[in-house]
Amino acid sequence: MSRKPKVAFFDFAGCEGDQLQIINLEEKLLDILSLVDIVSFREAMSEQSDDYDIAFVEGSITRKSDEQRLKKIREKAKILVALGSCATTGGINCLKNSWPSLEEVKKRVYGDKAYCFETYPSRGIDKVVKVDYYIPGCPIEGEEFLQVVKALVMGIEPRIPNYPVCVECKRNGNICVFEVGNFCLGPVTRAGCNSRCINNGSHCWGCRGFVDEPNLNAEKEVLMKYGLAVDDVLSRFKMYNVYRYKEIEG
Amino acid sequence: MRRKIDIHYVTRVEGHGNIKVSLQDGKIEECRWEVSEAPRFFEAIVVGRKWYEMHHITSRICGICSVAHQLASLKATENAFGVEVSDQTVRLRKILLDGENIQSHILHVGYLVLPDLLGMGSIIPLASVNKDELMRVIKIHRLANQICEIIGGRTTHPVRCVVGGFCALPTEDELKMVKDKFVQILSELQFFAELLEGFLPKFPDFERETEYIGLTNGTEYALYEGDIGSTDTGKTGVENYLEVTNEYVVPHSTAKFTKHARDSYMVGALARFNLNHEKLLHRAKAVAEMLGLRPVCTNPYMNSVAQLVESVHSAENSIKLIDEVLDAGLKDEIVDEESSNIPVRAGRGIGAVEAPRGILFHDYEYDSSGTCVKANCVIPTNQNHANIQKDMEELVPKIAHLPEEDIKLALEMLVRAYDPCISCSTHYIEVKFTSSTNQKNCH
Q: In 3D, which of B299, B279, B271 has the Cα closest to residue B221?
């Protein structure tokens, strides 16, 4: 590109942890400024502009009234990137979609004032507008964001892995979580986190979403072989992936 | 003459909310602090989830204070099951909380408030004008994040904290590294305090007496544990939190409001300073003195100064804690995430910690299988909403004669001073300011 691309950040329902991960790039964020102009980033700056090339959108859509704002962003942006689990798959906000009734969910939190508040089944932003690229994770990995920005600036396709976390985990020499008697969603979850949770003594929670064609049945069998009941397996699948799971399993 | 001012999105705060102010001849017709953030219903979505998932899910309430949410959550679950954690676990959790406190406070004072004092829209222009100063502020933020990463596996939504302790531990060498980082932070904070001292005249001179609430205990400047302290009514146990917070729903806000002895109260760094200033460590006290922060301080704008003072305290405190862990000998106390040693049982548990923005409560009820059947979370920013509103009601008539831009700035700075975390309470500030004298419109 002949001039520096203009970049804007927006957010919907979420914890803003993904934008925080970008701020947490610390000195490296200053380096980014030599490649792009940040024209809107409400969490960190007062200046705002409607003139931008690349929009990064965090958060899921959880009510009809937010759709319009997202559609306007899409109209203005040449490239739209979903940032983080909530934007890419709906994320943890979709847990409420599993409830028999959203009215019940509202009542739980707002009691007899529930009628004041609007909500609908939570979803990723691609259920409302066309999304060009996805940066998954809860939260995103800062380095992955940097790679995507550099690729976009150079005009090449950003690459997000479409193989499971197990590939990275094995490379890191971790003992398989199943071998020590725990469960793990690594076999069906998209890599790119460098198996962070397993490296740190935990297991994969599935925050980066399923790989494109997850073998959920095989994973289910493995989990059951290791002593988990079906309900428990499904509950774990759904932690971050209620929306996607319903799409696959109907 | 009627004036209408709309400020869409008060920037440099975490999340989305609205301020609506309407004046008639210097008197307030309407003054409303609204939160229009999309609600996420955490208290409902955790119902049906297992005990070992609770801190993982509730961490996602907030990216910036996820350590505090995890610790409040773990303490609630441990309280429900009667789990005692080791001294080492308590110390490491306190170090993690100190790291988050510094990271969050510097993000606020350095990145979000400093531009107001410099008359800039963000800290980005500093990169060309005062690069050295900017790099030193970033350095503090980076060091604090690195500390959280070493102890918690990640700053934003840590991965090592589990019910009963940690599922991975730092090595002795890593702890020494962490100590060295806190030492560096202390020295950079001294520089930052001197920088801030020069800006003190820019802090608005506004006082309003209110109630200050925060954790308090007899042995230390309370962040991880203690009773609930109030500058109006003294101490009460954490189990009585509902009598203190009295949450209520107002139709114009997706975030709940709270009140206790008065119409409103304040939580956060200034509240903690007012309650616990005697327990501040040596260098933090000196910085408070240098910056003119004296108890009881009733100027809400000084919350940012209190945050800097607390950052110094947190660094000093963690240096002490690391020495204690190392002197006792680092123990290999790895706790499995779903450990069968956890005595799962039916019951209710409450956990309270001080998040950077104030006292935070998680309250869970479990059935005998350890499945959550009921949850309640009372978030610091929710507790400040009513106080922000009361401050605005008192501030606006005092500044009504000023030019529009000055009024806007004073109101935005007020909201920012509270360091609101609106994602927590549900996110965005849309300031709608309507000032009307006489009956004419001039938009």
A: B279
Percent helix, percent strand, percent coil in chain B, to nearest 5: 45, 20, 35
CA A184 to each of CA A1, A197, A202, A237, B65: distance values in angstroms, whole numbers, following the listed order: 43, 10, 9, 10, 26
- The answer on pLDDT for B425 being more than 80 is no
What value of ipTM does the predicted structure carry?
0.95
> In chain A, which residue's Cα lies nearest the Cα of B63?
A17
CB contact under 8 A, B38 and A66: yes
> What residues in A contact B111, CB-CB < 8 Å?
23, 44
CB < 8 Å to B153, chain A? 196-197, 199-202
Contact A46 B53 (CB under 8 A): no
Q: Which chain B residues have a beta carbon less than 8 Å from that of A109?
A: 39, 41, 43-44
* Cα B118 to Cα B113: distance, rounded to the nearest angstrom: 9
How far is residue B366's CA from residue B77's CA, in Å, rounded to a whole number? Answer: 9
> ∠ at Cα A33 (A29, A39), nearest 5°?
105
Query: Taking residues B214-228, what's their average pLDDT?
Result: 98
Classify residue A83 by burial, with Cβ atoms within 10 Å: 0-12, 13-18, 19+.
buried
The shortest CB-CB distance from A108 to any of B43, B112, B121 is to B43
Give phi and psi for A35, each to the nearest 5.
Answer: -100, -35
For residue B167, which phi and psi values (nearest 5 degrees)? -90, -5
With CA atoms as reference, report the closest residue to B309 among B135, B167, B105, B169: B105
Q: Per CATH, which fold does A6-154 belong to?
A: Rossmann fold (3.40.50)
Which residues of B, range 103-132, sit inside 8 Å of A by Cβ? 107, 111-112, 115, 121-124, 127
Q: In the structure, what pLDDT confidence band is assigned to residue B360 with cuts at 50, 70 and 90?
A: very high
Tokens of B432: 């709608």
- Three-state DSSP class for residue B388: helix
pLDDT for res A117: 77
pTM of structure: 0.94
Query: Of B49, B59, B41, whose CA–CA distance to B372 is shortest?
Result: B49
Residues ≥6 apart with Cβ < 8 Å to B97: B67, B68, B71, B223, B224, B353, B354
DSSP state of A92: G
Rg over alpha carbons for chain B, rounded to the nearest Å, is 22
State the average pLDDT for chain A: 92
CB B131 within 8 A of CB B125: no
The pLDDT value recorded for residue B11 is 66
Give the Cβ contact number of residue A111 at 10 Å.
Answer: 10
- Does B248 reach chain A within 8 Å, measured CB to CB? no
Sheet-wide strand order for B358-366: B347-355, B358-366, B372-378
Q: Which two tokens stand for residue B158?
A: 């840590």
**With an 8 Å Cβ cutoff, is A123 touching chain B?**
no
**Rounded alpha-carbon distances, angstroms, from residue A210 to A61, B45, B118, B129, B319:** 20, 21, 46, 46, 42
Give B272 to chain A, closest Cα distance, Å. Answer: 25
Is the CB of B3 inside 8 Å of chain A's CB atoms?
no
Q: Bigger pLDDT: B26 or B220?
A: B220
Written as one string, the DSSP assignment of B184-241 is HHHHHHHHHHHHHHTTGGGS-------EEEEEE-SSS--SSS-EEEETTTEEE-GGGH
Domain ranges of chain A: 6-154, 165-249
User: Which residues between 28 and 67 in chain A have a beta carbon less than 8 angstroms from any beta carbon of chain B?
Assistant: 30, 33, 38, 41-48, 59, 62-63, 66
Residue A33 C-alpha, separation from nearest chain B C-alpha, in angstroms = 9
